[in-house]
Amino acid sequence: MQTAMNANTFRLLAILAAILTAGALRLIPHPPNFTPIGAMALFSGAYLGRRGLMAFAAPLGAMLLSDAVIGFHSYMWATYSSVALIVLIGWTVQARISPLRVGAAAIASSVLFYLLTNFSVWLGSSVYPQTLAGLTACYVAAIPFFQNTIAGDLFYSGLLFGGFALLERAVPALRPRGATQAA
C-alpha cells in the first residue's frame, strides 16, 4: 500500500512538473501563438483526468504564473476559458492515448482557442464593427496566428505526450498502477 502511494505521488509530481515546465516555455522567445498553452491543457486533462480541480488548476496556475511575468491583458477571460475547455478535450483522450487521438485533440484545441479568443477580440475592441462582417474580418485577420497555434499545439503535444510516454517506459515508477510495459 505504501509503495503504491509513493508511486502514485511520484507520477503525479512528474505530471505536474511537465505542466509547469510547459507553462515556463511561454517565457522563451517564440513566434506569435506558437506556445504550449493548448498542449499543456490537453496533457493535464488526459493525465490528471477527473481528479477534481487539479486537472484545471495545474494548467491555469501555470498560465497565471507565466502571465505574471509576461503581463496581463484584457482578453484573459477568453484565454483562460479556452484552457479550461481544452482540459475537457483532454478527457476525451484519457482512456486511450494514441498519436492519432492526441493529434486530433490538439487540432480541436487549436480551433476552440482560435474561435473563442478571436470572438472575444471582436466583442471587446473597437477595431472591428459589431457586425457579422466585423466578426468575419476579425477571424480572417487572425488566420496567420491560427496557423502558428495549430503548429504549436501539435509540436508541444508531441513533446509532452511523447516525452511522457518515453519516461513511463524508462522509469517504471511513472507507469500507472497496474500497467505493464509493452514489449
Care to describe what's here?
With 183 residues, this protein is mainly α. The protein has one domain. The chain is 74% helix and 0% strand. It has 7 helices and no strands. Helix 2 crosses helix 7 (143-170). The mean pLDDT is 91.
Describe this protein with a few key phrases:
183 residues; mainly alpha; 0% strand
Number of strand segments: 0
How do the helices and strands follow one another from N- to C-terminus?
Answer: HHHHHHH
Helix content: over 70%
Q: What structural class do helix, strand and pairing data support?
A: mainly alpha
Radius of gyration: 18 Å
Q: Helix segment count?
A: 7
Q: Could you name the ranges where pLDDT drops below 50 across 5 or more consecutive residues?
A: none
* Termini Cα gap: 27 Å
What is the averaged pLDDT score?
91
Shape: elongated
**Number of separate domains:** 1
Would you kindly provide a brief summary of this structure?
With 183 residues, the protein is mainly α. It has one domain (2-28, 35-173). The protein has helices at 2-25, 37-48, 54-70, 76-94, 99-124, 132-141, 143-170.
Topology:
Layout: H1 2-25, H2 37-48, H3 54-70, H4 76-94, H5 99-124, H6 132-141, H7 143-170
